[in-house]
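Sequence in, structure out. First:
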Amino acid sequence: MATILGDLLGLAVVFSAVSIPILAMGPSDTSPILLMLAYVVVAVISIGAWHTDKWPRRSRECVQLAGGSVILGALFLAVDMLLGHLHHPELSVLRAATKSGGAFGFFLTLMVCPGLTVVALGGFLRSLLLSRGDPEA
């Protein structure tokens, strides 16, 4: 039962973060089916990650993962900005970053940060709930 509650708590964090850009776009801009599909995909990815053997079990490790994903995301963004500006000097640096191309390009940057960051923060709250009473968590 604790695992289910932990998953629900973690998903609440992840869904909250996913909802922010959706609310900013406005409800009339996106179909409800597409929104539900986005939530299902994010839920499957999050729960799948949390239940793997490689996912950090301690809350401190989840926070470190979130911090590391922010640092790595910043490095990826810097590379995207540099490459994008080299290929598209007529665009602003930030706009050029989205056009950087490569194997994954800007999409990989978004997967690392904020994607992994949000999943790690949801995993942090999940691990707090699961480790109540464990002094090493």
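Second:
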Amino acid sequence: MTKEEFLKKYLYDSIKIDDIKDNNIRNIKIKYFNMINKVVQDEYRISDKELPKEYDRVIEKEKIELEEYYDTLDDYSIL
């Protein structure tokens, strides 16, 4: 699986966290799911105008972490 396919599957496509077999990927997804929920619920600190920017920042961090994990894998076929 190429890095682009990997990111499409785990970052851009809707995938249920429970359906992810790789524990490291699942933990990354849970971490950023919780961060996004925190951003959305923090209505006192984050204005409606800033919400999309905060969301994009979280997604970018998730992307970087997924890419870093992808780069550590020896056998991409297990994904």
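Remark: The mean pLDDT is 90.
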